Known about the structure:
This protein has 193 residues and is α/β, with parallel strands linked by helices. The chain has helices at residues 8-21, 39-47, 60-72, 113-123, 147-153, 162-171, and strands at 29-33, 52-57, 81-85, 98-103, 124-135, 175-182, 185-191. Helices cover 33% and strands 25% of the residues. The chain has a seven-stranded mixed beta sheet with strand order 3-2-1-4-5-7-6, with helices on both faces. One of its GO terms (molecular function) is S-adenosylmethionine-dependent methyltransferase activity.
Amino acid sequence: xxxxxxxxxxxxxxxxxxxxxxxxxxxxxxxxxxxxxxxxxxxxxxxxxxxxxxxxxxxxxxxxxxxxxxxxxxxxxxxxxxxxxxxxxxxxxxxxxxxxxxxxxxxxxxxxxxxxxxxxxxxxxxxxxxxxxxxxxxxxxxxxxxxxxxxxxxxxxxxxxxxxxxxxxxxxxxxxxxxxxxxxxxxxxxxxx
Length: 193
């Protein structure tokens, strides 16, 4: 069975934006939590920007798919890319050991986002960067009349509004929060003080 990564144009733009946010972490350890098929893990590893990239997911099937993609791409060095099965709320890293954490389209899937972001903050070094993307329940620019319908549609997962994501990051100990919103999609960044 052939498996395809989706939306190459959108993922390239998201990757470039993430790389900008991750400038302070260049040369360090980057962990891609909830990596899924490893699309971004592979991009980060191929960039040569980080000493090590860890593709981390709770799902064994997702990690197997990630492994298959890595094996099929002879431009990826396994020297600087590791696969780890773990829960984002219980990361297997020492406190302050990680330079950067990426969570692409993941926040809305986590059962306890505050636990996960607190754990991300714990493993980040001082000055370390967390970059996440997710879908929004609704945006500040959405007309108030359309919000109840959107909320009903999005109620099956932990979708947030822009302000809730910022509050979540700040309450978990992160600072320097920034965001980029495009329609119902948000990329945000925060740092450990």
